Amino acid sequence: MISRTNYTTQQSPHFEILSENQKERIFNGMMRTLQYTGAHVHHEGARELFKKAGCKIDGITVYFPPELIQQALASAPVVTEIFPWDGDDSKKITIEKKRSYFGPGPTPPNFIDTDTLERRKYLRKDASLVARVCDALPNMGYVQSLGSISDVTNGLADVYEFADMVRNTTTPIMSWSFDRNGCRDIHHMGIAMAGSEEAFRHKPNYVFYGEPISPLVSDFHAIDKCMYCAEHRIPQVYSPCAIGGGTVPASHAGQLVVALSESMVGVIASQLINPGTCVIIGGVQSILDMRCSIYSYGAPELSLLSAALTEMVHYCNLPMYSTAGCTDTKKMDMQSAMEASLSINAAMMSGANFVHDCGYTESGLTGDIFQTVMDDELIGMARIIEQGVEVNEDTLAVDVIHNTGPGGHYLYEDHTMEHFRNHWMPTLMDRNSYEAWEEQGRKTMKDRVIEKTRDLIENHEGPINKVPAKANEEIEKILEQAEERIAQTA
Amino acid sequence: MLTLKELLITYNHKYNSIMSTYLSNISETLISGKGDELKKLIESAVNDGANPGEILNQGLLPGMDAVGQKWKDGDMFMPEVLRSAKAMSNSMDYLRPMLKEGDMGNAGTMVIGTVAGDLHDIGKDLAAMMFEGAGYKVINLGIDQPGESFVNAVKEHQPNILGMSALLTTTMPRMGEVINSLKEAGIRDQVTVIIGGAPVTEEYAGEIGADLYAPNAGSAVEITNEFLQQAQ
């Protein structure tokens, strides 16, 4: 093998929105905002924590000194791993710079019924269905529910969701909860699946998602859950939905400043409580459509802002929770495919760590597993571009080219056998001849997406029968206790 | 020498032409959302002897109608509409004491708030501004409001509209609870209840017994006005 000095065999595409100077200015904008504007923290305990760490407090407003922010950033971990509960490391998540995992999103009230294809309320059965389908999709690196269960005891949608999902997929879940109680129940279920508290601490099997309110407000439950996760070293997301022109400035740089500042409150809280605990920031970054007054999930600005924020978050040496694969359409159509294609490709190029909302339609109000299945295909395609071109003696293949010569073909070459499987193979895209397409029933993309999704629903069993009996028992017990808790408070 | 009659005709003519210039300027300035300019314009119109009722009915209201139409047609955007609405509401505050009975000036009274447990207020505030712009007197209770504060506000202010919003699926049920509290207090029939918020749907509004649902702040006024007109 010929060796070469300082030679990169594989260069993946280089995609950057911001220059070093721009990043510095946005970062400084965040520092100034947190120091002089501050953030509302509706939690006495958290304010006490910040006060002890040197923050100025005025009522519910907390002002963060720059050195405290730097200190928090310095103690956040560089790498964190999330382990599938069944021990199969092929689905392990490594949270480090430039490693992307795509998944659905949390909590829309509605869901597209997989039989009728109509919008309806999200039901308990949908959580298992989403988990099972995503379990089978190779490009869904983690799972969220795509809804908020409407047909269980009010206030327990979070707990039932996790209980059902974790037993229907080995792909790590990103969970959410209403408050600390739900957060703890989910934690205990994670422990049940891991086998023990010690095992969970060593190998966490889910990530928790929490959200402050934009602009610059951490409500009681958001920061309370953040504190719980930090105390127990549960990897967590703390990120807002920033609405350009609504909750944050309409200028993109201003949006990045506020979005970063909002998340930083959670970063500082988590690192003060438990230095080195994993905290992921970012969130949905898009604009308020000033004509329809909706928060657009298909806007090109979503991709631009998400990619720029990814750079900022990585500049802070933190992992990024980004957004793609979502749409403003109400029904699966060309618009949903167009918007998802663009955002998935941009998110992939940006190297965000978790990319959520694959399967969000109607501007985040309806979960659609069909969209998730279509997104899975798009992510596969985008990954090919992201992988770039490998250049070495073998891939240059000059000898093979010489042996084949002008006018020959490569179909019979060993070299072809070794390499052709690296080509991406569609599962949904149609490349048939006209005749084959006609013979197979002249199916459109929509037909094929429905067919594939329904096939997975019918035939992919998932790991439900592999769940240890003890874990099953414990989860059922946690659910019973949660019901009792709600009954008592009612 | 002009006769007195001729003088009066000339004066009236001049007055009318000055007034009609004022009124069309008021409309245009309102449409362009320039609040400070509008305030000065209305003040000088009043100083020049303009009738406050005319300023309202022939200057401001046609201006707001045009804003509504432009918004509907996609020729005006949310921030522009809000500026016009704010300018309208400030003008009304100035004119209201000078208006006579029959000059309209008050489309109604609205109490609006975000329900308990919910700190989201942008949509609710947008709706409040739009109602103010449409000539409603708006009492904005703020965020995280318990049921009794809605009930008390309805008792105190006697509004014809009660608006509630929720952004969380957990706080949505609070809106139904407020409606039940209104029933218990025997004042449910006094108000038209309109609800909104991202996860709220028309179906949900029906379930909890709200009268109206608006998918966004921009459409809330129109939906309410249509309902009130039909009810009359």
- Tell me the count of domains of chain B: 2
How do the strands of the widest beta sheet of chain A line up side by side?
7-19-18-15-13-11-10
Number of helices of chain A: 18
Q: What is the helical fraction of chain A, as a range of percent?
A: 40-55%
Radius of gyration of chain A: 24 Å
| Structural class by secondary-structure content of chain B | alpha/beta
Instruction: Return the structural class of chain A.
Output: alpha/beta
Q: State the order of secondary-structure elements of chain B, H for helix, E for strand.
A: HHHHEHEHEHEHEH
Number of extended strands of chain B: 5
Count of alpha/pi helices of chain B: 9
CATH class of the largest domain in chain B: Alpha Beta
Question: Total number of β-strand segments of chain A?
Answer: 22
Q: Give the overall pLDDT of chain A as a whole number.
A: 96
Percentage of residues in helical conformation of chain B: 55-70%
CATH architecture of the largest domain in chain B: 3-Layer(aba) Sandwich
The 3D shape of chain A can be described as globular
